[in-house]
Design goal:
By secondary structure, this protein is of the alpha/beta class. It starts with 10 loop residues before the first helix and ends in a 38-residue tail after the last strand. The structure holds S-adenosylmethionine. S-adenosylmethionine binds next to strand 2.
Amino acid sequence: MKPWWAYDVGRGRRLRQRLERTLRPSGLGTLRRTRPLSDRWGLDRGTPVDRWYVERFLGEERASIRGRVLEVRDTRYTRAFGTDVASSDVIDIDESNPDATIVADLSKPSSIPTGTFDCFLLVQTLQFIFDTRGVLEEAHRVLAPGGVLLCTVPAVSRISMRYLDAEYWRFTVAGCRELVTIAFPGADVDVRSHGNVLACAAFLYGLAVEDLTEQELLDEDPFFPLVIAVKARKRPTAAPADSHVFRSHEVIALPASLSGASTVPMMRTRP
Ligand SMILES: C[S@@+](CC[C@H](N)C(=O)[O-])C[C@H]1O[C@@H](n2cnc3c(N)ncnc32)[C@H](O)[C@@H]1O
């Protein structure tokens, strides 16, 4: 079979294509370049475009960011959007992270007791972990009955300068729905697409929110998601999946408040 480009599209089609280019010129201007304007997602120009969608989603879900809250890497969004937060923990695989109160690999069941948290903020992290299903199953396990996972993932993004060999995934709405529904049996799962072709292109080029208008950001086109946001509420009564069979047991460090047992190898407490 010939590849698609080997087919002769015919003179009529070629003329129509030329007309289309003439009537709607690309006008690429400053975007006619093969390297982005920023290597830091637009941070050096203003607010990264993906964060506008992430923060709007978390703002809409403030009421769920309550009780015992777990976040990855730092407490940035717990502090910004939390309401009635009883305790705030930070999980990271990176032992050198001074903000981490729990050092563990999220893709493996850990010794964090089942049902510990009321809210888990899993923001722009899943793309860095190969076993996405494992992470979501662990998220489900550590949430209390009725607890909420608020997760955002990139549909489109440059590869992080730090993670060329360790950034694994981009996502679609359909893929997220499937993954989360499997990990959260019987749960309410809400998956939302945010962005449009301009937002995607701007983000890839390293433009910032301040380069766009609010109207441009608000125009949602499901065929061009930039960020996908997921809300999943664990069933209020413990599902059978709660009797989780551990595939391994690899907590590296756990705060005293979460570890009943004396078998935890390292503990970290906030100053
Ligand atoms: C880019 S940050 C994203 C989180 C941050 N809250 C944000 O909004 O950008 C990714 C974090 O996930 C951590 N991480 C990567 N793989 C992990 C894993 N398997 N388990 C736990 N944390 C992991 C990294 O060390 C890093 O701190």
